[in-house]
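User: Please fill in residues for this 464-position structure.
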């Protein structure tokens, strides 16, 4: 008797689920019709005000039905996404990334052509010799075993001491995880914060990995564009408007790749206040914290312990350790443990001898300072060389890039980058890779100054 009751309920669940799918199909048909009308009227597929009205209605409905509000939000986001898919869009613009240009540059190099490489964001510095030596000695001593997923206590304590010394931040060693560069840190932060359907605000122009990574964990990137004319300053009212009930996080990256912008204290604090007010997590990618040319303190999310946050840092830039593949994340204990569980599942831990080498790097304060000074000098030289060219740009406050706009009618950044490489053997990253900035290009400062100045000179010849 009981068995059949269970069977009946299961069957009802099955039928209800099928009914949901039938309703989804009906909804998709309606969306297709709307899409056709929008196309006829020349309206864009996405309409934030319509989305917002739908969301509000769904939350209200969910509350009256006793359905969890968060679930209703996620479901709404998924439905909006599916609807967007069936609506006709203008053909996608072909955008080349710095990786595409790098591949083309490498092909030329293989043919013996000397290319001035200003495409990939990798410093040319070598890791400090004490770091290399320590890695070597530890490897020789057999320290090439698994460690706990977060990394050895010794390293995590060294990270805690380092952020205390640099930023006055009080964190426990257990709040830090040594991970595979800042890149994996971004993934851990998102995977531990975002559920499918959640929205994440990304401030453009941005490092090209953020948006695909948000999508990879099932989230939806919502872009807040910033403009050269505003000194790449994010507008806080616009930020507030971009946040919906489904928004869970904002990604910050200051000093910024590609613009070189660093945020002043007032704006940083303003963003923190918005995040607190709207109950969001700030995912703050501060891998360029050490490349700071402003003379004032670097603004770090660690100075705002009351806001939900994840700090992402890396050894790649400060100490020229890109190939060591090591960085760290810091968050509250709860999220750190969730991130550690993901790290454990996917990679177990980073190599033991790299962990020891990282402890050594954290002591190399002079090297980091010197590297920053070299980047500052290069930025100065590149900006000076760019001055007479038909370009406009923001003089970087930090990071290792200059992001000029080409002030020549009808120019496309991707085409520009390809032709510049072919004609002048100079490689740059096309602006379209960083968002809706097709007439921009990015110069990476990971080359000696003379080479950069020569590269800019050739850009000038090419543009004239
Ligand atoms: N964040 C930003 C903004 C970057 O530009 C980069 C590297 N280009 C990274 C993170 C990742 O660096 P890594 O994984 O080498 O630490």
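Assistant: Residues filled in for all 464 positions:
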């Amino acid at each position: 008797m009981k068995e059949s009751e269970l069977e009946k309920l299961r069957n009802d669940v099955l039928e209800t689920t099928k009914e949901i799918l039938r309703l989804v199909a009906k909804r998709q048909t309606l969306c297709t019709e709307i899409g056709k009308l929008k196309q006829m009227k020349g309206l864009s597929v996405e309409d934030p005000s319509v989305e917002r009205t739908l969301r509000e209605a769904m939350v209200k409905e969910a509350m009256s039905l006793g359905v969890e509000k968060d679930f209703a939000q996620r479901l709404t986001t998924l439905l909006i996404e599916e609807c967007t898919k069936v609506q006709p869009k203008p053909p996608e613009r072909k955008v080349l990334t710095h990786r595409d240009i790098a591949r083309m540059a490498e092909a030329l190099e293989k043919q013996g052509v000397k290319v001035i490489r200003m495409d990939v964001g990798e410093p040319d510095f070598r890791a400090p010799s004490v770091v290399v030596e320590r890695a070597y000695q530890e490897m020789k001593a057999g320290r090439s075993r698994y460690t706990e997923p977060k990394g050895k206590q010794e390293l995590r304590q060294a990270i805690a001491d380092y952020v205390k010394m640099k930023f006055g931040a009080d964190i426990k060693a257990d709040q830090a995880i040594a991970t595979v560069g800042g890149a994996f840190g971004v993934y851990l932060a998102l995977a531990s914060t975002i559920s499918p359907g959640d929205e994440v605000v990304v401030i453009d122009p941005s490092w090209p990995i953020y948006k695909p990574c948000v999508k990879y964990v099932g989230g939806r990137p919502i872009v807040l564009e910033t403009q050269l004319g505003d000194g790449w300053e994010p507008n806080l009212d616009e930020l507030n408007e971009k946040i919906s009930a489904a928004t869970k996080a904002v990604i910050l990256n200051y000093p910024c790749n590609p613009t070189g912008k660093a945020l002043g204290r007032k704006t940083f604090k303003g963003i923190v206040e918005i995040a607190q007010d709207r109950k969001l997590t700030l995912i703050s990618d501060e891998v360029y914290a050490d490349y700071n040319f402003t003379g004032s303190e670097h603004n770090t999310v660690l100075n705002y312990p009351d806001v939900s946050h994840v700090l992402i840092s890396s050894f790649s830039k400060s100490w020229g350790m890109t190939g060591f593949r090591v960085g760290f994340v810091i968050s509250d204990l709860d999220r750190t443990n969730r991130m550690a569980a993901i790290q454990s599942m996917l990679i177990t831990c980073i190599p033991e001898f790299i962990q020891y080498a990282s402890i050594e790097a954290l002591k190399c304060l002079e090297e980091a300072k010197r590297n920053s000074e070299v980047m500052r000098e290069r930025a100065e030289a590149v900006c000076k060389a760019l001055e007479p060219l038909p370009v406009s740009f923001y003089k970087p406050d930090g990071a290792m890039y200059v992001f000029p706009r080409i002030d020549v009618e009808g120019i496309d950044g991707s085409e520009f980058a390809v032709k510049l490489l072919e004609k002048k053997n100079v490689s740059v990253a096309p602006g379209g890779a960083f968002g809706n900035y097709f007439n921009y290009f990015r110069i990476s400062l990971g080359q000696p100054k003379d080479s950069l100045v020569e590269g800019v000179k050739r850009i000038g010849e090419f543009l004239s």
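For context: Residues 2-41 form the longest helix (40 residues).
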